[in-house]
Amino acid sequence: METFHPTKILMTADTIGGVWNYALELARALSEQDIQIALATTGGPLSPEQYEATSAINNLTIYESNYKPEWMDKNGSDLQQAGEWLMQLKDKVQPDLIHLNGLYYASLPWGKPMVVVVHSCVMSWWRAVRQEDAPKEWNKYKELVTKGLRSAEMVITTTQALMHEASSTYGPFKQSNVVYNGRKQQHFKFGKKEPFIFSMGSIWDEGKNISTLAHIAEELSWPVYIAGDNKHPDTGQVLELENVHFLGKLTNDEIADWLSRASIFAAPSRYEPFGLSVLEAAMSGCALVVGRTESLAELWGNAAKFTDPNNPDDVRDVIQNLIDDEFCRNIMACRAVKRSHGYTAEQMAQDYLYLYSQVTRKEVLA
Description:
single chain, seven-stranded parallel sheet, six-stranded parallel sheet, 13 strands
């Protein structure tokens, strides 16, 4: 059977969250297959480091905008203008396939094969973090996301657990598949492990629950180092962290260095649909302590120690037990490394190419 692979893809991503790193990793892997990527960004201008990262990827062209990511746009206020911009981009780029990493825009009249990837959503975040349904002010968001996902030829999620959440909240979908995220091992390295705990992420995101880690840090016998952005991109509110060494935003090389030396990586998340930072820590030989969520359990199994993110004493005890037990810590680090081999950028790209071929072939046959 003939395989139909796209040669030019229009992809979307926002510049603020983890989807940015995912999009670059996928674009890098696809460019090695001689596929051209036009990446349309929301969330504001790229940082100098983001520009540098994109310039190192062949066949990648960036188109920037200041439109809000949809998780910051509860009423869809930017939807019409951003949609018009994307339609103009489509006409300019003339892609074979559309790959959306945002959910609103799947209902636009693309006239091309299209897949949409659910990386997270406000409804599931609210249930996991606040343990209640999102307030009525997010009803418009839910309506727009439902319309988008039900319009898509194929909906993709990053775990089976997230697919269950998305299907029950927004479904039914025409077609659906799961593709695990991936990273290249060469980005990360093993170093001599040192007695400290490391964590990183969007500190302003309550779902990451980094404030709980900071709260219990003084009760641990090892120091805690935390990297990331503690200023909320929408409200501007700054989250101050106590009892830890706050490193601020680090470059990718700096992150790789810290991970190579950290003995334990702690991410007691309340909401983590995938967690690229956890994967990066596993590839760096860290023992993992993560929140007990369905997605993280699916991804890491016996390769991580799980903790109740809503119980600070449990977070403290799980980490301290690893500090006290070097043998267990080494076993967990080895398990994490082994498990990480299943989440490579190469495998991610191959999985996407297969799904691209399915929707593109359907279009060709039609």
